[in-house]
Every structure is written in structure tokens, then in C-alpha cells.
Batch of 4 targets.
Target 1
Amino acid sequence: MKMSLTSLMVTAIAVCTVNAEAKPDGHGINTFGLELHQRLAKDGGNIVASPWSIQSALAMTYAGAAGKTRDEMAATLHFGEDEKALHANFAAIAGDLSNLVKTSKKNVAQTGRHGGPSTPLEITTANRLFGEKNFSFEKPFLALLKKSYDAPLEALDFGSAPEFSRKHINDWIAGQTKDRIKDLIPQGAIDPDTRLVLANAIYMKAAWQSEFSKEADAAFFVNGTQAVKVAGLVKRREYGYLKIPGGVSVTVPYADDGLQFLIMVPDEKEGLVAMEKTLTADLLQQAASAPRQEIELHYPKFKLEPPSIALADHLAAMGMPTAFIQGTADFSGMASEKLSISQVVHKGFVAVDEYGTEAAAATAVIVAIRSALIEPEQPLEIRVDRPFAFAIQHTKSGACLFLGRVTDPR
């Protein structure tokens, strides 16, 4: 069976007591995503995360923040000073993703019989608020999230049935992600103190613009040192190409032009960490629109299913500790009682083969009450035989729907 691109991300934020037109812009999303990626990369190994989904969930949380909590979140998450523009930007990206699906369906209907794509692009995004049924939330907060994020409020009984509520939310997440993300919120994360869970999900399924050929026994240097043989892919055609500090980037188009797969491979076999440190949002934006040239691209098939990652400590260290401090955090825009974030959990999945990419990710944030290159004459050959970074980009904004690294594709 052919594998097409499936990308998916869920972000859930649990909170407890103590649409104007906009041009999509991915700069802040990518700046935050790279900063988080570099922190996660310190532990080594494979990584996959969704900067877009993590920021979407935190942007919904930010809508209820005030004072120092709000200031720290804005600085850490690169939200900027204009909150109205912030929420409009997330709505614009979600809207453009929806438009890509509509256009893809039309293209398939019109060109499928003439050799065009045989299946349309699938992208769904969803937001939902799960609130304690006996708790009152600020109406402006709920109205904003409904308008900008299409996030309705569903009442649950966290006080009497926290485990049932946890399973219900996890089932919603699994449903939105076609069962790619299961049991996102762990046991004990929802308790009688829980007042609100904000959830965001994205699911994407697409095929390459041009399928790859298989390359048996391709060489790959695991962690840059251990030589192994892996199942590889190869294709000669025009790809976006950009020389970046310490390496090169190659953009592989999907059947629908609004999305692309970005590979960033270091010049040296053990150069991934050094190259990652040089990556910036501006570089990602340049890569999103890099000029094309003929390349013979070799890279490995891979499938990543890393365990869930707890992000609370990372976010606090990155500059927003107050949001997690009981009795000090200020989410008065959500409710009159004291609120604080208790945990942020993230989980991802990515698989790439000759037909496309399948990717999924989920994040849960739990808040509780407590008191210029010269073109060669011959096609350029690029062999991705060493640890590399990758992204799935929304081309119009350059925003990374997914961002990760592969140190071992097996």
C-alpha cells in the first residue's frame, strides 16, 4: 500500500483555578521552534515536534494571561506586541491550510485522469476547550477563542470524574489525529483541581509531487560515526537548494504547492549539532523560497516515534517561569480565581518513504488551581548519509508545521 504524507499535531492545555484578514507569518513560530529544538537536541537522538501546534495552544492560553505572566509568555514565545494580530495570524495560517485542501480537491478532480495527483491533500485543524462544568470562565476569553480559533467549550466533570475526563479528552485527540496520537495526557495529569484543557490538533496527509525510487542498502552514519546500511530513496529532479552555514538545505515539494519537506544536512558527518546552532527563522524563510536546481537526492526512509516530552521545565527555563508558579501566575483573563500551568506534554510521529510522509504530534499543557552558489555543469548530488534536520513547511508563511532531526533512521 502506498504511503502518502500524513502529518499530525495535537496540543492540549489544561487549566485549573488557585476574524480579520491577515497575511500568514511564520517568523515567530519558527524562532520559538528553533529555540525549543536546540534545547531538546542537547539530549541527542531523534526529535520531532510541531512548533505551530505548540504555539497555537500556548497562544490560546496567552489570551487569558495578564501582568508579568503575559509579558514573559510574549517574550518567550515571540508573540510580539499586537495581540490582535497574533490571533489573526494563527487564524490566517489555519485558513490557508483549509484553502489548500479545497484547491487540492479541485485539482484532483480536473487533472487526476490526465496524470495529475490521484488523491487530494488532507489537512484538518481543530481546537477545543474542555472546562470544569461547575466553573465560570470569563466571557471575553471564551468569545475570543471561539472567534479566532474556532474552539468551542465542552463541559466535563473534572471534580468527580477526572479519569473519565482524561480518557474523553484523549479519545477526542485520537479521533482528530486518526489514532496516530493515543493516550497523550498521562494518568494523574487531570485531577479534581483541573479547570480547563485547551486542545489543538492538526492532521495532514499528502503525497510527493514526484515519487522516489528505492535504494537498497544505502549508507548512513548513525550519530555521525557508526556506519550502517539502511533503506534509502533516490530521485533526480529540480529541488529548492540553499547553502546554509555548515551545510545545505533541500526542499522537496509535495503534490500540492502549499507544503514542502525541508531537509537540512551538515557538511560534516558529525556536524549536525554545529549546523543546528546556526539555524534561524530567516534561514528557514529563505529555504522556503530557495531557487531550484537539478539535484540527484539520496536520503533514507525513516520512521520516528519518540516518547512524550515534558516541556514545562524547558518553557520555564526559556523565560516564562511565572506561568508555572502557584499563586503567582496571572491568568485573570480566563477566570477570577488563581490559575497556573502545571505541565506541558508533547509527542510526535514522522515516517517518510518513497510515496510521501506520515507525521503526527501532540502537546498537552496542563494548568491547575493551587492557592549565491555557482550552478555546476552536472546535476548536484546530495547524499543524506549522516544525521540531519528536517521540517514540514507551510510555504506561504514559511512556518514549520513540524521540525525535527534524524540521527538514526532505522
Note: Residues 5-37+47-206+304-368 form a domain with the Antithrombin; Chain I, domain 2 fold (CATH 3.30.497.10).
Target 2
Amino acid sequence: MRQLIFACLALQACGMSSAQGLDYESVWRCDDQAKFNWYCDQDERRPATNVQAQPTKPAPAPKPTQPAKSARVELKDMKTAEQMRAELKRREDLAVMTPSDANMKDYLELWQVAQDKGAVFADSWRRVVWQTPELDYSLRRPTNNQAIKTYDSTREHDEEQQLRALAKDHGLIFFFRSDCPYCHAMAPLLKSLSNKYGIEVLGVSVDGKGLPDFPSPKDGRQQAAVWGVERVPALFIGSKETGDRAAIGFGAMALTDIVQRIFVLTGTKPGDNF
């Protein structure tokens, strides 16, 4: 028994010296530098204290790249519009950053060439349009004063005929609120519209109260919710026969605007009068 104790003490005393034959520092250490052995549990290892962390060197900053300089293109060598635009931009940038007389003159010379080409293009455009009726938009929507007057007169006649025809089996539904100033302003316009074209206008209040021009309106609080009316004034047109309806607009509208909207929405197809 005494010999066994002495043997253990001897092993402990020579532990450090015998560790030199190992490929790690000591069998008595429990850290990341020691290999896993029966003296240490994996989760009991302590971080090594004798290993100094090597500072990481910051990556060198990338050198700023210089933008490639565009090569100068002379007018005689320009074959495409893209080349002219690029060269005009290059000269403009140079004149802005270095506004010397030479740079300004260089830019303006090419700018004048571009203006001349644009003028030739615009003149050729109108010549082709004048001689090709199907390409002339002014034949669909006049641009000169005399033709505009004739167009407006014809349009007003068509609008009047359309509204008088609608008055036979259609009516307008006017949603309002008694404390809405825009509703107060729009109400007499609708009365005037009704008197002129004979179309009936039904006043519908969303707060149960009337206006001077519509003193006895229908209570439309429930109907407004069903129709999705969230803003007033709101104007709809509806068929007396089928009950179909369509919104004319929301917010205050002028009389001419109301008439135009009714005509466009009920008497034309998209694109006819635009």
C-alpha cells in the first residue's frame, strides 16, 4: 500500500516533465489546447490562457477606380443619333466642369448641329402629317380657333340631345349632407340642369337633413352605405326602368362638367372624344 502511494506521488511530481513527450502541453489541463482525455469532460474545458489571439489585419481599402474617359467623336465620324447624344453630353459635362471659352465653343457648335437636325425633323413631321389625313390628329380634335368653335358648337348640340333623350327614362341621384358647403354650392346647379333638360334630380341626404334647394330629401343613410358613398357631394345616374346606375362623379362639379361627364359616360365609347 505504501509503495502504491509513493508511486502515485512520483508520477505527480514528474507529470510536467513527462508531458514533453506528448503532443499537447499537459494531461492535467482542461482547455481547447489539450486533447480530449479521460481527465476532462467536453463541456468542462476552459479556454486556453497561454495562447494569444493574433490580431487580424484589416483588408486593404480598394483603390478608387477612375471612370473611363470617353473618346472624342468628331461630327464627320458620327453615324448614329446615340453617338451624337453621347458626344453632346461629354462636351456639356466638360464645359460645366471647366467652362473655358474653348470648351463652351466646342459644346455649342455640336449643340447647334443637334438643333438644326431637330428642326429638319419637326418640319418633315408636319409635312407628312399635312399630306396624310389618317395621321393628322387635328382632324379628330381641332387645334385652330375657328375649328374649335365649330367643334364646341357641335358638341354642345350633341350633349343637349343626349341629356334630353336620357331624361325620358333616367334620373340623377344627388347624395349630400346638410352641413357640406360644396353640397350647398352644387345643389342650385342641379336644379338648373333639371329645368333646362327636363331630367329629374332626386335629392338624398346622408344625415337626414335637407338643403334649401332640396328641402324634403330622401333619407339616404342606409342607401349610401349600400352604394359605397363615402364622400359628398356624389352624383349618380340611374335607369327608371331597370334600376341600373352609374357614378357621374364625386366632389363639387361645375354645370358644364356635369353635362360633359353625363354625355361622355352614356353617349360615347372610350377614346371617341379624347
Note: Strands lie at 170-176, 200-205, 218-219, 234-239, 245-250.
Target 3
Amino acid sequence: MMNKIPPRDGYGNALLKLAEKNDKFIVLDGDVAKSTRTNWIRDKYPEKFVDIGISEQDMVGTAAGLALSGMVPFATTYCVFLAGRAWDQVRTAVAYGDTNVKLAGAHAGINVGPDGASHQSMEDAALMRVLPNMTVVVPCDAVETEKAILAVADHNGPAFVRFGREAIEVITEEDTPFELGKARLVKDGSDLVIFANGPMVYQAMKAEEELAKEGISVMIADIHTIKPLDEEFIIAAAKKTGAVVTAEDHQKIGALGGAVCECLSENWPTPVIRVGMPDTFGESGKMEELMAKYGLDSAAIVKAAKKALAMKNR
């Protein structure tokens, strides 16, 4: 059985490592330190922590000012507030000026379950992806979240990383490769490719096991960086397999699915079936139940894969 760890723990671990080695590093928090694991910094390195309070717009503006003075700020709050409530400040103070601010969106996706639609951030990656200069990263587990945070800290420019609250399967290891802007091949295959990110990478792995029982050879790729997108990898995978499924814990409009469709429609038209939130808001409930209800699980990926294969074989 795979170990389950909340991705936010990966965020906290990365912050501790940055605090040890980077004199310019500082964390800003929107009064949610315990929930986002920034309390780990507050308790051990209080001089590197500032609680801005429930004032997300001020937090982003303050982060931009700190970045302009040479600091490397990580502005942290729930994803729905960071990408939604503070979007104007992100656009104007961070992206427009190509400012070296790191935006950490915790509690992303349907993962927050019982908190309901108001806190289930299903639109954030699309909102951030559309901004010029913004790097957008959606890691698949706690270990990859830690790597993503360390990578964006070294990246000069705005970056947004989204990660969930609840414990999910850890499917990568310390030595698993991670590079911003580069897809990670999880498994090779020839009949179909599944491009996934976030917790949907594990769901893609489960779907592959079911499809393999029917003799279907499936490639799986972890597209943790949706901007900049690894177009070379995506085009090559589409050429090899001729059928594509995308899977994300996000609205299926505007983020990974949209990015892949845009890439392939302009370079190598291929049947693509998107698995994601079906243009609706969520509701309160257990994470696993909500994933099943809204088609964000391995069963939905299997169904999408068969549809894509049918389109390929017309």
C-alpha cells in the first residue's frame, strides 16, 4: 500500500530547506499558517515569517514590493483566495512587472471536500495560466510539491504552485526527476497517452492497470508544469499513440486540458478527451465521493480512454 501524505507537508518541508540556505527568502501568510504549514517557518524561523492577516490583496502587493527590494517572497494562502480574490494584484503587481514573487496556492481542487464549493478552487490554474510571464505548476504528490517549490525558488520570475490539503498517495521518490517545463514520463505505451497532473496522476496509474487487462498499451505523463508547456513531449506522444486523454483536478476548461488541445490543434491534430470538473461547482462531501461523482477518478479516465481510442480508430 502506498504511503499517503498531504501535499501541503511537501510545501512546509521545502520552506524549511529554503530558510536554511537562502538569506533573501521570506514567507507571507494570509492568516492560515497552520493549514498551509507555514507555521513550520513561523515557529523555527520567525524572522522569515510575516502574517499579513486575512488580506490577500495586501499580501500580494507586499510580496511584490519585497521582491523589488531583492527578497524572494512566498505569498501563501488558500488557492481560491490567491487566484480569485487577489487576481488583480497578481496581474498588475506581479505578472505585469515580471516580479520575482512566488505564489503558493494551498487547498487546491476538489481535495478540500467538506469545505464545499466556496473553497474548492477549480478555476485557479486557468486564471494564472493566462497571465504573461507566469509559470504554473501542479505537482502530483507531497514529494513533487517539495521539489516544485525548491525549483520555483531558483526560477527568476513569477510562479504559481497549487497543491492540495488532504493526504494522497505518494507516487514519486526523492530521486524521481523533476524539471520545470519538462514532462515526466511515468510509463511508456503505444495505444493511448494520458497527460495528467496533481492527484490525477495516481488516478491515471489506476486507470492504466484496468486498461492493460484489456490489452491496451497506455503511456502516462506527469505534466506538472502547464506553463511553460512541454510542447515537444506532448506532440511526440500524440504522434506515437494517436489518442490523448487529459486528467486534472480542475475545471476541464482552461488549464491542462485546454493547454494540450491548443498545442495539438496547432501542431498535430489528435483526438483528445478531457477529464476534469464538468463546468460546474462542487459541493460538500468526502474527497473520494466527490471525485467519483464529478468524474475525477480512474473510472472516468478509463471511460475517456475508450472514447479517445474509438475516435482514433474511425
Note: Residues 184-312 form a domain with the Rossmann fold fold (CATH 3.40.50.920).
Target 4
Amino acid sequence: MKIITITICLLGSILLQGQDYYKAAFNHSGDSLKFRLNQIIKNHTEFPYTSSSTDVWDILKETDRDENDSNNVILIYSGRSINAAQEYNSAKGWSREHVWAKSRGDFGTDEGAGTDVHHLRPCDVGVNSTRNNRNFDDCITCREVIDGGFNTGSNTDRNLWTFEPPDEVKGDVARMIFYMVIRYEGEGMEPDLELTEILLDNTDKSHLQGVKSTLLKWHRNDAVSDWERNRNDIIYKDYQKNRNPFIDYPELAEYLWGGSIGKWKAPLIISSVVELKNQPISVYPNPTDVKLNIDAKNFESVEVYDISGRLIIQSALKTIDLEEQPKGLYLLKIKANGEIQEFKVFKE
């Protein structure tokens, strides 16, 4: 029980620190929310692209290290593990992928947008070349992207200038793109980056990246992973001293570009369960468009809260109808077997 108590205290501390970091953005909406977030995460510590001192290569070796082999890094679009020491190596090693293509805004590899590790990831050299500056979108007439003779799960479109990454990193890609839109607002020599629904051709150097609606869908369908959280923490604590807000609070994308309307309230701190009895509870489908189902032994009741913390549904039924509720993030408190467990769900 002592171990559980310590874990709960640490979790509460982490959440409170996160709230302090974003405090200036609470109770703002629209352009004001975007501005406040920009003020929080701008002026980060910048590192060179290539240098005899700490550079992007060095940082990526830590942020994207293979958990099963500390000498390797994981390649973003193929999931392959490769020797981290093989920096490019005459195209036989790995390269540094600008998830926001550096030609979309023409910022190159200059310090700032060009070296911001929040959107840089290790990538196979050939796959990086294939991605080029293609728009992110679901392919229609799909062509598989191959890495070392193996299908990566990525696709290009045979007729359109688009690139579709594997399902397991689609949300990662979207959140990196969202970060860049907030971080770079055209101050000084920085680019002013924005989302678009338009498919840009390969020669277009507009400060735009799409496709917005597809990126939102990917963000909703591929939830934030522990990998992303750990990466965000390393960048913040050890290098750039700034965070990706969309990893910490995924609902921000809805307030800025999605289905949520109104001011971003101070997020709920989810109360931890003091004593767990190993009773599995599942909520599905998540995301949902109308109904949610609860699978729990000795189910007693459920409460549903909106993002502002307002109780909107209280029920003793295992099926929840969200048809009349707006799109966005919701918190479920499920009581079963004498304990309460909490779940975040998304209505799309």
C-alpha cells in the first residue's frame, strides 16, 4: 500500500506541474488561446543541426532510443530499429526527418524551426526521400512504401502528392504538426506556419501543411502513447525546455480546430484509485460517434463529465448515449466492485 500511495502522490505532483506550465492559457479560446500557448512554448533553447557539440543527431539518439536496445534508434515511418551511431553513413544509416517538411516555409536546417526536435525524428534515408514534402493524407490509390525489402505500413498515393504513415504513428505525426503551428507564428525571422485542407504540389513553398481534417482524425484515432510522453519529457527537461501541448492535453486540438467551442478550462486532475482489486473494466468504442459500452464485473454506476468538469450523465446502465452531446473529450467515472476507475473518451 505504501508503494501505491507514493505513486499517487507523484502522479498528482506531475499533473499539478503540468497545470502550472499551461496556466496562462486557461480560460482562453480561439486566437487568444493559440497566442497564449505560443507565448508559453516559444523562446526554447535551440541546438545546431550538425555540430561537434550537442546537436540534433545527439538529441535524437536519446529521444528516440530503442527501449530494447540502447545502442539503436527507432525509425518513425517503418518502426525499424537501427544502430544510432550510423548517422547517414553514405545513405546506409539513418537520416533526420522533418515531419513538417522544411520546404513548406523554406526554413531549411537553420536553428529554430529547422532544428526543433519536437518535429524531427529518425527515418530511413530512402523512406525520407519518398516522403519528400508530400501532404499528410489517407491514400486513395495506394502504393506501399518499402524499407529494406519490408513493407513499412506507410503509403503514398499513385495520383496525388500525399503520404500516409502507419496507423501506430499517425497521431504522433498530427501532434507534431499541431505543435509547429502553435510554436511558429512569424515573429522575427521565424516562419508563420498554418494548417490547410489544400493539397500542395511539390514546388509550393507556402507556409502550409495539410490535410487539416485528416490530421485531426489521426489525432483522435491514435491516442497519445507513453513513448510520446517520455519523448516530450526528455526534450523539455534535458534540451529545449519547452513542451508539446497536444501531447500533454490532446483536447487542445479540438478547442483550436475541432468540435469543442468555448474557453479551455483548467483541466480536471483525475483522482487516483487508492485500492485496486484487479477488476478489468473496458469502455468501447473509443472514439465513438454516438454510444459507449461498458464491460465491467459487478458494475454499479457511471458518471459522465464534460471537459469543464460538469456532470452531464449519471446512470446505472452499461450503455451511454452521447448523441445529444457535442464532439470532444469526456471523463467517465465508473463504479464497479466497490471501486471507481476513470476513463477519457472522445466523441467524434
Note: The mean pLDDT is 88.
